[in-house]
């Protein structure tokens, strides 16, 4: 059998699968849209339409990427050269009470999840060891 010729107007380079199996769409500037799916869900959760305008999602993603980039650059300037550490981010948001509280909550939750995973792995390991004997 012969392979079907590619359809006219379809650019294969426009779409790529990342390691999670999601489709990433490249913008005209060449930057991939990484957060579109999550932002659409967040926008809906905050009262937007279930399918918000693509332009709105793209604008919001541009703002998010700009914020992350700016915070990363600022964190790299205050901490060890070329490295971003958690303490650097905490230092940057220390005067903004809402951001500081959110960072603190997320770090606390991360520690709790680490402890829970460790306890679960220990129980699983002990259970497997008991089956061997």
From TrEMBL:
Pfam families in the record: TFIID-18kDa
Record's subcellular location: Nucleus
Gene3D superfamilies per UniProt: Histone, subunit A (1.10.20.10)
Keyword Zinc-finger included in the entry's annotation: no
GO MF: protein heterodimerization activity
CDD domains linked to this entry: HFD_TAF13
Keywords: Nucleus, Transcription, Transcription regulation
Gene Ontology cellular component list: transcription factor TFIID complex
GO biological process, one term: transcription by RNA polymerase II
Keyword Glycoprotein recorded: no
InterPro entries cross-referenced by the UniProt entry: Histone-fold (IPR009072), TFIID_TAF13 (IPR003195)
Assembly description: Component of the TFIID basal transcription factor complex, composed of TATA-box-binding protein TBP, and a number of TBP-associated factors (TAFs), including TAF1, TAF2, TAF3, TAF4, TAF5, TAF6, TAF7, TAF8, TAF9, TAF10, TAF11, TAF12 and TAF13. Interacts with TBP, and more strongly with TAF10 and TAF11.
PANTHER family recorded: TRANSCRIPTION INITIATION FACTOR TFIID SUBUNIT 13, TRANSCRIPTION INITIATION FACTOR TFIID/SUPT3-RELATED
Function: The TFIID basal transcription factor complex plays a major role in the initiation of RNA polymerase II (Pol II)-dependent transcription. TFIID recognizes and binds promoters via its subunit TBP, a TATA-box-binding protein, and promotes assembly of the pre-initiation complex (PIC). The TFIID complex consists of TBP and TBP-associated factors (TAFs), including TAF1, TAF2, TAF3, TAF4, TAF5, TAF6, TAF7, TAF8, TAF9, TAF10, TAF11, TAF12 and TAF13. TAF13, together with TAF11 and TBP, play key roles during promoter binding by the TFIID and TFIIA transcription factor complexes.
Similarity comment: Belongs to the TAF13 family.
Name by which UniProt lists this protein: Transcription initiation factor TFIID subunit 13
Organism from which the protein derives: Anopheles culicifacies
């Amino acid at each position: 059998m012969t392979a079907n010729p590619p359809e006219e107007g379809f650019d294969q380079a426009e779409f790529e699968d990342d390691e999670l199996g999601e489709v990433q769409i490249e913008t005209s500037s060449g930057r991939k849209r990484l957060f579109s799916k999550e932002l659409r869900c967040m926008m809906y959760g905050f009262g937007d339409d279930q399918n918000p305008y693509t332009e709105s999602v793209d604008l919001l993603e541009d703002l998010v990427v700009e914020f992350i980039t700016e915070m990363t650059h600022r964190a790299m300037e205050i901490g060890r050269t070329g490295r971003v550490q958690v303490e650097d981010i905490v230092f940057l948001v220390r005067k903004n009470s809402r951001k500081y509280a959110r960072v603190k909550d997320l770090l606390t939750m991360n520690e709790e999840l680490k402890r829970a995973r460790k306890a679960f792995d220990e129980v699983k390991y002990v259970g497997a060891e008991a089956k061997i004997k």
